Give the backbone structure.
Amino acid sequence: MKKRYKYSIAIIVAILVTIIILLIKSNRWESYYTIKLNEPAREFIVQALKKIPNPKSSDIALDLGAGVGHETLLLLEKGFNVIALDKQKIAFDFMLKRPEITQYKDRLKTISSSFEDLDFTLLPDLDIVIASFSIPFINPKNFDEFWNHLFAKIKSGGYFIGNTFDPGFTTFNEKDRSVMSFHTKQQTMDLLKKFTILSFKEVKEASKSPGKYTHHYEIIAQKK
Ligand SMILES: C[S@@+](CC[C@H](N)C(=O)[O-])C[C@H]1O[C@@H](n2cnc3c(N)ncnc32)[C@H](O)[C@@H]1O
């Protein structure tokens, strides 16, 4: 009887721990979005979009890992038709409550999908892709296939504006790193072989955690 009682307690504790872990995991991006909502759009993307010509009314942009939509909004304001993609449905709950974004709803489509599961056949050809702090979250097993599909969808003369993370981006824990894609400067250049590089900047900064660094590349490139 005592043994069975202990066994039941162990099962209840295991279930509670699992629920707590799931809650923490599901709220991780939600907490991030709540903070992001009150921050401005990334300056790199603001400046990059100023450097490219204004679109035709039929031009299509894809915002990969759109989050709360800061960069989506920049694309809409510039005049693009925008496909905002994010794995987290909750990102769109934040995004689609923003009146400054919903005023453009006729030119906005949202797709809730992981990069890894994205069905590229459903996408139109693209005039510009924004990938702001997003594609390094692709599982390394899937990165090359994803990149090849993405490349094929970008029109000749279309733009890629985004980041890769150097392996020296050390603020993520080992578990997260194991499912993320990192690229050295040379590996990033290799990804861009069939693009003309319009701007390339290496950014390395000490993080708040001692001994840890953020280290990434900011890319503006045009498909040849
Ligand atoms: C660091 S945030 C960047 C958000 C925004 N682009 C920015 O620059 O602030 C990364 C975004 O990518 C999304 N994301 C992460 N992994 C993903 C995956 N495997 N597939 C699709 N979206 C993913 C997250 O949900 C999150 O909204």
Notes: The beta strands are 60-64, 81-86, 108-112, 126-131, 154-165, 195-206, 213-223.
